[in-house]
Amino acid sequence: MWGSGLYGQIGNGQMSNVISPTEIKFKEQNNNGFSIAKYFDSKSYFLNRIDKEMSDWLYDILKSGEYSDVKLRTKDGKYFPVHKSIISIKCPTLVNMISKSIELNISFEVCQHLFQYIYTNTIDFSSLNTQSMIELLYHANRIEMKGLQHDCE
Question: Could you tell me the pTM of the whole model?
Fold first, then answer.
């Protein structure tokens, strides 16, 4: 039963078991300069900034190949360094595929865009031609990247 217990209702200052909810009245917000809206706006800004910095950092690691532990071979014979730990978090289906083979039947250009999306959740579609876009959508479906599938369509 809601509200029952040894110590009464939380937040109403009473030590009795009140079965009906108690209204809690707050003091004016402006007397101390605190605003819930401003508080959450600042938190949102802070979290967006952290997300952007993390995304930039992951993209830099992807581009540099620093700390990579797997090199995938594309269908054009080029090698693409990736980080298995990042891929295992962002795309478990792809990790299973990589554990069986390090060769992907994907062009190097599309591979760059695919992993940019995996690492950063962003992609620049303007640099892709129609054929590359179709190939990217095919591989997004193949590795079950729902967000990328949606963005490609």
Answer: 0.67
